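Lab notes, practical 5.
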Amino acid sequence: MRIFIKNGTLVDPSRDFEGRCPLLIDNDRIVEADSFNEAEADRVIDAEGLTILPGLVDLHVHLRDPGLEYKETLETGCAAASRGGVTALVAMGNTKPPVDTAERARAIMKRAEKLPVRLFQAGTLTMGMQGETLTDMEAMVKAGVRAFSEDGKSVMNTARLYEAMETAARLDVPILSHCEDINLVRGGVMNADRNAERLGLKGITNAVEDIITARNAIVARETGCRVHLCHCSTAGSMTILRQALAAGTRISAEVCPHHLLLTSDDIPGNDGNYKMNPPLRTKADVDALREALLDGTVSCISTDHAPHSDEEKTRGFASPFGIVGIETAAALIYTEFVRTGQMTLCRMAEKMSLNPARVLGIEGGSLQPGSRADIAVFDFEHPYTIDPAEFLSKGHNTPFTGKTVYGRTKLTLCGGRTAWEERI
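Output from the prediction step:
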């Protein structure tokens, strides 16, 4: 099927291009469009007033399936992804049971073949996520796993982590690292600052993240492993990241929209939609994250999409950690950074599509002829209000309810097939 998209603004970070340009899709590939007669297309899309980006790639998504399907399923999570302009995602392995064998990974990826977007399953580093016995990483890679993560926990046994990083280096797959010293959490539920004192809640210090970030960077440097720091939230982690990059460590990092837009000062009270891990930090931390994002130290934006049931999140700060974000990330980043002139659309697409694809080692982030036809078309001109009742995710747990943003997804194509469409 040939789809011809005309009159839109095309944004291609792979060639640092932004401008009006036609786009021609032939089955699952983008092809040269300059001399094409639109009368020969099977479908013509007039994208006047719309912006065409390469499909977004989210390195950090919790789909809760298997075992916790009341929170999310592969189907609902991937539908939500397509509505957010995401065409590829990494599903974390902290399911029930965890994805700690090749057989479990293969079963999920078999189901994923029928989904509207590309799902890449992360394998866990240790059996049962208990932090001691390593999984058969080689068997999982042969089964199709492209990354490993103990997300939700850190491997606290440094010897085990060292062995895992040695294996990952040999297999040339990244480890997506959740940096948290569990021995220092001590029952904390939000950032350790004046707001925790105001609300009478136990705090989580920056050291909880910074200590493991430093350790993992050191081990990555020694082993040659590619390590990707998940959901960075502290100024200290940015200092460690800069030092590791300067030393030649094979390291990259992501930040999430909520850690870029909110501080602990924004927490209104005992509201579970503001409980996440890592927690919302101080303005000084947010400023450091923004600086690192804008100067290129942080290369990726991911969501840490973490759905929970409505009932669970009514428990305030006694509720589980996590918020949803895969349907709102692009709009939040565009509204906060691009619309205000702090970032170009090319840089946004680079951090939400091209760079994440490179971390994972997959096709993505390009609209050049020959590229896979993973495409997201956005309306960045008209505002809308975030309303969880509209979400395709089962989770409605977001602190951004009622926020006015720009960037409604109008069309998502994955491999040239329609994954999501709102009437253009």
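Observations recorded by the TA: The chain has a mean pLDDT of 98. Residues 207-223 form the longest helix (17 residues).
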